[in-house]
Protein 1
Amino acid sequence: MQSLLLKTSTAVIAFTLACPALAQSPDEMSDADGIVVTATRAPTPLDQVSASITVLDKAAIDRAQDIGAAELLLRTPGISLSRNGGYGTATSLRIRGAESEQTVVVIDGVKLNDPSSTGGGYNFANLLIGDAQRIEVLRGPQSTLWGSQAIGGVVNIVTASPQAPLEGSFDIEAGSRDTVSARAALGGVSGPLSWRIGGQSFTTDGISAIAPAFGGGERDGYTNRNVAGRAELALGANASIDLRGYYSTGRVEIDGFGGDAPDYSHNREFVGYAGLNFTMLGGRLRNRIAYNYTDTDRDSYSPELEQPLSFEAAGKNRRFEYQGIFDLSDRISATFGVENERSRFKSRSPSGSLSDPLPDFVRGKAEITSVYGQLTVRPLDGLTINGGVRHDDHNRYGGRTLFSAGGIWALPSGTTLRASYGEGFKAPSLYQLFSEYGNVNLDPERAHGWEAGVQQAFFGDSLTIGATYFERTTTEQIIYNGCDFGSTDPLCVVPGTDTPRWGYYLNVARAEAHGIEADAALRLGGWTLDGNYSWTVAEDRSAGTANEGNWLPRRPRHMANASVSYDFAFGLTLGSAVRWAGKSYDNASNATRLDDYTLVDLRAEYRLNESVRLFARAENVFDEQYMTAYRYGTLGRSIYAGIRGRF
């Protein structure tokens, strides 16, 4: 009874406090305008961003103690997550009920996506916190600046940039299920050269990917190794060269359709960036010419079969871009650019029998050239208005033009009003077009949405309360259509053959989403309290279909987060965090329900000195049994402890 009372109380706190506060650190402060963010493709004070945005600085990231980026992002408004098991398994993150592949992920200016994945999006399974200095979540359609995929929003990750002649950091922790994580980074500034390199190793015995209730018993482990580096060389007062790189390799054990199995998957990701930055016209025109490259390889194995290789895929992106920022005056600026992106993929699914030859790779490629521009005007102190346009020329689908507009007004009373409108365009992924389940007759997805919000600060920003209402409509949404045995549907065979297939992709869906995001934060003495509540109605509105009016799968309609911490004068910080997610459905027909759940975490941190801290946390302290994807397991009670250093 006491356990139930405490769980109920903490859930009430989550609703009552109803986005982690925008924590600030000195290197993120530009001037009186506040935090500078870069998810807008140009350094912009937070109070000049018209779209909804959450900023997590290094202090907030450290305080949360999360290992994976997905777990940290899940604490911010409007974000839901589903995962096919424990760490390292397929992880889908959705912003405001949009599809996972409709979110753009950016690391240090490089847009990440895997052309060989089902929707061409990014799998959050292997993205650890690593050397992240700041994470920004920009919600709503952002395709004007970020192009295809940015229908749900943008997750922008900025890694640490050196500020001193020599500096470093490290984090080491261990805990439940033989989990060990170790991270270290070193960097510095020497004359015209600044550099930083960091690496991380993570390993865990994990949990069964298939939940115990469905026969899962063995532990499915996961390992991840990654390294990231960056260097910038000043060529003079007005020019510099910027190089960045990131490499990650992961191995995760997975289960088969029937339950426990020795199957496993490998995932390798490489990201490269080279850029030239230069200014003209006395610094009023800032230019960037860059080349981005991403390479993702995925392999799956079933050791019990004669031919253990069961799946093989690779996706590559090459992206050339120019971006300019021109300050026409101290109140008017323009951001504009040109991009060319070339994507390739290949995949195959070999038979488990050695008597069957390896099939040829299914291959596909696409090219898209884009031109965009956005004008930002500050006609009055505190008032910022922007408008933008983008034209995409796709080699298969021709030209598409998108528009956006927005405004934000920060009043002297501490009230901030914001509103924005945006459009999105997403071409079918190469997998959806050319794989064994592909359909070359697919049309692009289109979306448009708007939002309006207000935030009020009290007592010199000690207390902030805000709320945002949003709507989004997506047409020609691409879904997977399963094929019954013996189906006479001509698309239920592999194109050009008589071979039956399990299903194919098609444009039949129309999706609509609307909702409210509310947040509050309070700082009083040593106390810090913050929380958020999201009401997201994401439905299938395909007229005349059996699923019309149904909830889109794996999207809770109600979600809430809350946290409270207290800093003692002698260096100890104690805190607790609560997450509550309402019910959802696992499938489009809404026949399979996923129950609501409440997770409670406890955290502690002790400052040994200005450079070193000890920390510990207990996650899911009540050992809640829940699912974010039907039949797949989730982490139970977990305890971790470690040490962190910054020098």
Note: The CA atoms of residues 258 and 599 lie 29 Å apart.
Protein 2
Amino acid sequence: MTNHWIDLKNSDCILIMGSNAAENHPISFKYVTQAMQNGAKLISVDPRFTRTSARADFYTALRSGTDIAFLGGMINYILKNNLYNKEYTAAYTNAPFIVGKSYGFKDGLFSGYTKGKPEAGPSLGGYDKSQWAFEMDENKVPMMDRSLENERCVFQLLKKHYSRYTPDMVSKITGTSEADLINVYKTFAETGAKGKAGTIMYAMGWTQHTVGTQIIRTMAIVQLLLGNMGIAGGGVNALRGESNVQGSTDHCLLWHIWPGYLKTPSASKDSLSVYNASATPKSYDSLSANWWQNYPKYSVSLLKSFFGEQATQANDFGYNWLPKVDDGKAYSWFDLFDKMFDEKIKGFFAWGQNPACSGSNAGKIRKALEKLEWMVNVNLFDNETGSFWQGPGVDPTKVKTEVFMLPASVSVEKEGSITNSGRWMQWRYQGPKPMGDSRPDGDIILELGHKIKELYHKDGVLAEPILNLKWDYDTNGAYDPHKVAKEINGYFLKDITIKDKLYKKGTLVPSFAFLQADGSTSSGNWLYCNSYTEKGNMSARRSDKDAVNNIGLYPEFAWCWPVNRRIIYNRASVDPKGQPWDKDQWVIKFEGEQKDGKWVSNKWTGDVPDGGWYPLENPDGSKREDSKYPFIMRKHGHGQIFGPGRADGPFPEHYEPLECPVEKNFLNPQRVNPTAVVYSSSEDSHATCDPRFPFVGTTYRVSEHWQTGLMTRPQPWLMELQPQMFVEMSEELAKLKGIKNGERVKVTSARASVECTAVVTKRFKPFNIGGNLVHQVGVPWHFGWRWPSTGAEESANLLTPPAGDPNTRIPETKAFMVNVIKL
């Protein structure tokens, strides 16, 4: 989330799309309700009429997988009707940047495309992104036209690209009526006026597509055009699927990042200097903060945190002790289980997860588990993953995998922090003691580390990384979360003077601005530097005192990365003179003294400013050379309407899901994202426009169950509320198939079949897609054979396809093709 939960109440219009927030993120809806009580409009766009839709001022439906078309139509509407915030767009986004002559778009492909080769992996193809570069002046600064008139400036290219997304065309693709489209576009575009704010709330209904990253980028473009980034009640706000997803991602859950979103090094980066040089952007524009120029400070401090005194300049701070990924190869969820299936992986720790139910194309995952030598299941209870060898259709005598179970404690039985969707790190204390033989995850990891070190002391190949690893996070023999939290924050490792102030060795670093690249500081995650300082544990604070602007920042309640900033890019909430676009609900404002039309003292108030420099302009309109552009994490300091770093194009483009009900893409000749990753083998079949699978399928959650149901399906009172796997369908489809509410049916995809109970409702309606009637159905993904004891209720992910987004490789579980047959 660019903003935070409480800030939702400051919005004038809330668009919930790719999410059923009222049911799946009910706490968020407290603040949505407050916004509505203050006059805000709520729009729900969803293939199914949900509990969120029931609370909305306006609801409309769209076919799953067509969100880019829907939002692309909004961009076209905003530009065609001159509803964008001209001053904001010209000053703060890269709309004025001139794009090089090598850039082009034709027949659904951007310039520089090369089709993928089967031997190169699952990607359908890739781009030479150098063809999307900006024109540079003699000082290597991007050339700009702030008037936005140059035919090759981003703004004009944007207008041309989305001029094809007319209401008629978008309606043809999405199934949404033209009248509904215009209503949504008009209502949300009104937030482009000064003093207005619009926000978007999305969840996995947007991410789990082969174009998931670009769906979110499309909405980011809308928000930049309307001036909704950085302001109170604005932003692009991701609703995480679990209370600590944000924290686990920040701390390196994903294969391609180190903590703090540093890059995982590849094998060709054979030294720390080469690695840092490749990851550190260089800007020649004096007004660009280009914050990632500090990359070496963060990477070296991380290595010092990993290896402590053993990390020195002489050994590259231990850089070569860390594993490297092979150049050009991915190690995502899909890729790991693909290799496991091919017997290239011997052992697997399934820690706090249930991939036998949660993974897309789960049938292949279950077969992959059979080919391991060993697996360790660390979880609260046994589950479909730990007992896969007892599952449907499995002969235990033919399974060679040795399975170990390590019982873990539940969250209330351990102390530590979570970081929620709004980036708020909150400290939680231990309640009851762990039951039985269960132990907190920290204790399990700590003991494993000690045991592994002992073994490497005796006999270990390539022992240095293990033996040199700093591993002193216990107190009186038990895991100490405070020691880890302090290590994540970071220490001064020697006496150091910064800005005439002496900081003593062993004291905690006050913020990431103090981190150094010479090995004199440590930090386990630079983004969290400032979370546990000499003043104490910032995340444990519980003050209900608001900031001076009284908009719900609550700066002394918990802690928010970075440096307790509650709304990121908040320097975009003010005009170039430092004065808020919104005079009533302002986030920050400049209150320095002025003399002769010039600022002569520096003072910001409100939220922690996104950089404490002077404003871009003096009160008299003259430019300042000691300021910075507001989008400080971008190399050139501007919000990216044109995104030349994405794998599938600098502008989002509508492509159909891998499995879809139409034979062609109505917008261009490329039906599927030409850079999508598709895992194809006998175990990875998929089908498009196949008469055996005529209906669009999607997955979703219900309130009564949690994730794969591990904590909820064993509970009889929750099973009484939602006892069975079900498929939700329209009355029209039920009539067509001769199915009555409550009857058992079979839902079949190209990969598997799942028995379900039919739920016939008005919540789904057929779509008119290009003159053809298209039906959609939905299945919850909380079930699996382990509970209930009948073993008849299986996982929806047995049905989902082996395809993913090229940027993230997240699976496309929200749009695939199925059939429904009455049993």
Note: The first helix runs from residue 21 to 24.
